[in-house]
Amino acid sequence: MNESLQEFIDRENGILHFRSEKWYNGNTYMPLEIYNISIPYKDWHIEIRYEWKLSEFNKASAVNYSQSFQNRFSCEIQATSNTPLSFAPLSIQHQDRILGLFKRNTPFKIKCSEPEINTQLIKSTELLQLGKCISERADFSPVFYGSKKGASYTLSAHFLVVSSPVEALEAIFPLFRLLIDLVGERSFANHSLTGNKNIKE
Question: Virtual CA dihedral for 2, 156, 183, 199, nearest 10 degrees?
Fold first, then answer.
């Protein structure tokens, strides 16, 4: 396993479950490595599914004229609150790199009905650092989603890259933690306001 991935797991107090499988690329079966990482964070449970698909064209003897046959790394992150939360759906996507040049505040498209959350995200160091990382890599464009499921709230993010996958994970994770903090704090504030209103009535 990549040493930098192990360092990330250790730093976040994560638990790793690894398994090796095969995937069919249309020509032959190739190695598929799957890393499932569980990370506790505050009152949330974070699950990371990190996959590495090895391409036969990655061999030194192979000639690869197309990037479509390179190794593929994919990562999905999902966090679910362990306590009931009430918060609006949200999404964060990086704009097209050309269109993003015309955005004054941020190259990200943020959808959230909470204006305070939008403002905090746009001004955050985490979003700025992620934007810088994306601008330096043509293969990296993560997306974030948040939605209420039953009594809990779920945040998710995913990305695909052809190189330096742990570097991409390191870039995305601080913003993911910030989203957990903002959703939790805002949900608590909304709950307090609702509680006060009920008391007055």
Answer: -140
CA dist 75 → 5, 120, 131, 141, 183 (Å): 12, 26, 18, 12, 22
Can you read off the two tokens belonging to residue 20?
């090796």
Contact at 8 Å (CB) between 142 and 129? no
**Cβ burial, residue 11 (10 Å; 0-12/13-18/19+):** exposed
Task: Identify the burial level of 95 via C-beta atoms within 10 angstroms of its C-beta, where 0-12 means exposed, 13-18 middle and 19 or more buried.
Answer: middle
Classified as helix, coil or strand, 143 is: strand
First to last CA, the chain: 59
How do residues 70-96 score in pLDDT, each as one tens digit?
Answer: 568 999 999 999 888 878 899 999 886
- Residue 159's DSSP bridge partners are 75
CA distance 118 to 106: 11
Number of other CB atoms surrounding residue 89 within 10 Å? 12
Query: What kind and span of H or E run contains 156?
Result: strand 152-161
What phi, psi does 130 have (nearest 5°)? Answer: -65, -40
At 132-187, the pLDDT tens digits run 999 898 889 999 999 987 778 999 999 999 888 999 999 999 999 999 999 888 76
Based on DSSP, count helices (H) and strands (E) in the chain, helices before strands.
Answer: 4, 8
Which residue's structure tokens are 């090895």?
A: 54
Residues 174, 129 contacting (CB under 8 angstroms): yes
